Amino acid sequence: MRRGAALGGTSAALALGLGAALLAAPRPAQAQEPEPAAAESEPPLDGPADAWAAVYDPWEGMNRGIFWFNERVDLYLLEPVARGWDFVAPDPVERALARFFDHLRFPIVFGNQLLQLKPIAAGSDVARFVVNTTVGVAGLFDPAEKIGLVEHDEDFGQTLGYWGVPPGPYFVIPLYGASSVRDATGLAADTFSTVYPWFSPFFVSFAVTGTDVLNDRSRALEQIAQERGSAIDFYAFVRNAHWSNRRAKVRDETEAEAPAETEDDLYYMDDAEEAAE
Amino acid sequence: MKLRSAALRALAAAGAAWIAGTGLAQPLRAENAVAVESTPREVVERTVAQVIEVLKQKQLETPEKKERIQDIAYARFDFPTMSRLVLARSWKRFDAPQQKRFQAEFKTFLAKQYGARLLSYEQEQVELLGERAEPRGDVTVRTRIVGGDFAGADVDYRMRKGKDGEWRAIDVVIEGISLVSNYRDQFQSVVGKGGPEALLKELAKKNAEPDTKS
Q1: Which of these, A60, A25, A272, B195, lies nearest to B187 by C-alpha position?
Q2: Which residues in chain A have Cβ-Cβ distances shorter than 8 Å to B209?
Q3: For chain A, how many structural domains are there in total?
Q4: Is residue B214 part of a domain?
Q5: Which partner from A88, A248, B117, B182 sits 20 to 30 angstroms from A159, CA to CA?
Q6: How confident is the model over A115-125, as pLDDT tens digits?
Q7: Is residue A30, in this structure, part of any structural domain at all?
Q8: Contact in structure between A132 and A159 (CB atoms under 8 Å)
Q9: B3 contacts in A (CB within 8 Å)?
């Protein structure tokens, strides 16, 4: 799944996380600015004025500030270094590294599958881990996929969502990117329960995380540049994309069923006008 | 890190979606006239096949490929409906000429933003997963990208039957990320701050930029 090209996680996140500044006009860190939506004099359809926005973002002012900051960090530090890395590292190496870092996530994915009562997927991932650790040379390659053991992506934020915890407010984490209160909590738990740092010197996990971030970012160079360039409001783009994608991930097993409650709003809200014509 | 990949994925998806999306289209009117009562699934299937066919033709120059895919997309996306859904509540703030301008700019915008991207997706195949009936007669056709860099990405097309009886896509949802919803959020912040003219200006500016390579 996530083997997807440049979808490099971290990089993505960061880059994505930040873009707001680019297009979001000259309003860096004015926290607590009143919701623009509230200023609109349109009659609310129902509920608060921002209810029809897809994302719950009561902290938009602060989030835009952090996004702007993250975006600077990416533009001036991460992206240039990633370009260098991309220049020296052949694509197959980048892909192998990305697979390796995914492989390292196995304990997290597995644990969360158990917590979400998904024994079949969990079993498949154990087999996958064994195959890729051995035949796949410590996870650098992914022979398991070819025999039908596809990758799954679980984390504690999804586990919380699985058990009904709502995402809470959208939250841009400094130096990390788009998240939510629920997912930030999950991230902390996942980080804490990542095994290898507990029995290796601190610089090992620094190096691993750093390389992971860098490698991901270098795989996403083109995409992020493109999206930055094409977005009208990059902050809103990232926010919506992240939020929707997380929602889909939490719902994974029920995908085929009826979708969100909000979809009526999305697809029919201007019925009235249509009729008026 | 998977956490963070969401947005990227969206992007990639957008590209892939477009491929498939454009895929929805069917080029010439003459052909459309021939098609009798296609199901939404058939429309998606046929359109995807057409787009892939165009992408595969190595002898075609890039601009011509773009143009052909654009024709397909124009025929199989319902741009007027998409324009309204994207503006949502703000639609009423646009007067009639502004609405017309918005429709034109938005259509150009989508074609320009995704047209270039699509061309790098030659490797992809599209697998049809099934369909799902939605309220009020819409149908969602579910597909998945097979092979290439975006293997495994889910791409759903929300189809609506037009007054002429033809099914057209009104939204593309990639990995859970809806094109309509995403642009709605982006446009809302611009219209909220600067009104309709601000958004029209932004779009015109984007549309006037030279094409990015790739």
Answers
A1: B195
A2: 229
A3: 1
A4: no
A5: B182
A6: 999 999 999 99
A7: no
A8: no
A9: 9, 13, 155, 157, 179, 183, 187, 246
Mean pLDDT along residues B31-47: 74
The answer to the question of residue A46 being in a domain is: no
* A33/B contact by beta carbon, under 8 A: no
Whether A8 sits inside 8 A of B1 (CB atoms) is yes
B70: domain CATH number is 3.10.450.710
Asked if the model's pLDDT at residue B6 lies above 70, the reply is: no
CA-based R_g, chain B, Å: 17
**Percent helix, strand, coil in chain B (nearest 5)?**
60, 15, 25
B77 DSSP 8-state letter: B
A143-147, B17-21, B80-84 — which is least confidently predicted? B17-21
**Chain A residues within 8 A of B1 when measuring between CB atoms:** 8-10, 13, 101, 105, 212-213, 216
d(CA A99, CA A120): 22
Return the sign of the alpha-carbon dihedral for residues A200, A201, A206, A212.
negative
Q: How much is the average pLDDT of A51-64?
A: 82
Measured in angstroms, the CA of A30 and the nearest CA of chain B are apart by 15
Find the domain containing A257 and state its range: 11-22+59-276
ipTM over 0.95: no
Closest residue in A to B85 (Cα–Cα):
A267
Count how many domains chain B has. Answer: 1
Per the structure, the complete domain to which residue B25 belongs is given by: 5-208
Q: What's the pLDDT tens digit per position in A147-160?
A: 889 889 999 999 99
CB contact under 8 A, B92 and A273: yes
Residue A126 lies in a domain: yes
Nearest CA of chain B to the CA of A223: how many Å?
7
Cα first-last separation, chain A: 45
| Chain B, window 121-140: residues with a beta carbon less than 8 angstroms from a chain A beta carbon | 130, 132, 134-136, 138, 140
User: Residue B75 in contact with residue B39, Cβ under 8 Å?
Assistant: no
DSSP characters for A233-273?
Answer: SHHHHHHHHHHHHHHHHHTGGGTTS---TTHHHHHHTTHHH
Q: Is B143 helix (H, G, I), strand (E, B) or coil?
A: strand
Whether A252 has its CB under 8 Å from any CB of chain B: the answer is no
Candidates A220, A244, A270; nearest CB to B178: A244
User: Could you tell me if A51 and A262 are in contact, meaning their C-beta atoms sit under 8 angstroms apart?
Assistant: no
